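Q: I'm teaching a short session on how sequence maps to structure, and I want students to see two examples side by side rather than one. Could you give me a first protein with its sequence written out and its structure tokens following it? Keep the formatting plain so it prints cleanly on a handout.
A: Of course. Example one:
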Amino acid sequence: MTNSEFLSVIKQSFAKFLKVKTSRSTAKLKDLHGEIARDLQVRLGSDFVIKSQGFNDDKEGKINGRYYDKNVDILIKKDGVCIGGVGVKFVMQNYLQNSNNYFENMLAETANIRTADAKVPKIR
């Protein structure tokens, strides 16, 4: 996907946001996530399975976490094993507050996923 094509997808997502009039709807994200997933599939090839809303079966993928399993925006699998996930955030309102919240949430989600195989210490 070229930069111009990517900007076009962002415009399309923003137009859906304006139409539904709420940032709570996933409608604005389906096109964006789907196009990123489609681009990854083209670049990575048929050895990889990409799961995302707006692409193939229109479902997010789930990654095992240390404390809880996490649905991710775009999941990348090879040979049935999850090898990566992509989180895409699209801040639409109250940027100053939400950009920090999204960043902190994504750090916590990453830590949860990255430590999935670590032993959870027992509380005494």
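Q: Perfect. Now a second example for contrast.
A: Example two:
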Amino acid sequence: MTNYFPIHINIEYKTVVIVGGGHVATQKVASLLPAKASIVVVSPTLHDTLLPLAQAGQITWREKAFEARDLDDASLIIAATNDTKVNEAVQEAAQHWQLINRADAQGESDFITPATVRRGPLVLTVSTSGASPSLARKIKEDLAEQFDAVYEDYVCFLQQARLMVTAKFEKGDKRRVALQALLEPSLLEWTRSGEIDRREAYLQQLLTGESR
């Protein structure tokens, strides 16, 4: 079994080429859209779910059979057809500096895409390195329930609060204590209950050095 190195990669505005336009391609596109990648789908046909995205310009559809030149500008490549020969051709055409994922042959892939839960800046990923995709999906479901939609607002608040704390305090004990205080459980509770004023008042107390 491959021992994968976990990494979050910035692919904003970088070209990702997906060869194949079916169900697997649809899943890959869904996971790539939040990362703001420049997505190119190469396929004679396109899944109904992807058609509106192509029409809206959110993805580029090359309505054709795969050719090696389709990979010229790709940073990442995903071979997602149901034809082994086509996927092999994609792999053979990839350059050494291009990372490729083969949906039909994990052992031939440079990378795999883990099960993902997104809550704004918070990204939770799960992988069993291919040992049990069903388990990965189950854990993803558990995480999605535990870290519900409220976490998007909560983590965005923490992001802004951290910037304010680091601007206010020099490196040292005061900054460290203030950053640790941002993990006070009440902040999440107030976010969940919509008590934003209490959350903001707490932050201002931290910034002025006042006690609660």
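Q: What should students look for in example two?
A: Point them to this: The mean pLDDT is 95. Also worth mentioning: The first helix runs from residue 23 to 32.
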